[in-house]
Write a structure and sequence with these properties.
The chain is α+β, with helices and mostly antiparallel strands. 46% of the residues lie in helices and 15% in strands. It has one domain. The longest helix has 21 residues.
């Protein structure tokens, strides 16, 4: 059983490793500049389209079986099936960095 707990702890520690964008011919300042540019572009794109995400009515209040109020976003032909704009912003920034040739790798000490 000791080896199982050691394996689980080592997997959890490896999963918490800090990550950074790496490119063979880029220095850290260039990587930071590219990341900032991609994040700015992703923020602009996701905010430009954010009015289409949940429609004009906003969240709707429902009750669960115990009678507690629950706010949910309405789904329909004009809502986004992928979630909210913050996830979309992250996805766009990752796509931008990958299209510039960067890969997300664990930070080397």
């Amino acid at each position: 059983m000791h080896w199982v707990s050691t394996l689980i702890v080592s997997l959890l520690v490896a999963a918490c490793a800090p990550m950074q964008w790496m490119k063979a011919d880029a220095n850290p300042q260039q990587a930071d500049t590219d990341l900032k540019a991609c994040q700015d572009e992703a923020w602009r794109e996701s905010n430009w389209r954010s009015t289409y995400y949940f429609g004009a009515i906003g969240p709707m209040a429902y009750q669960d079986p115990l009678g507690r109020r629950l706010l949910v976003w309405p789904y329909g032909p004009f809502s986004d099936p992928f979630g909210d704009r913050f996830i979309e912003e992250s996805r766009l920034a990752n796509f931008c960095m990958r299209s510039k040739g960067y890969e997300l790798e664990p930070l080397k000490k």
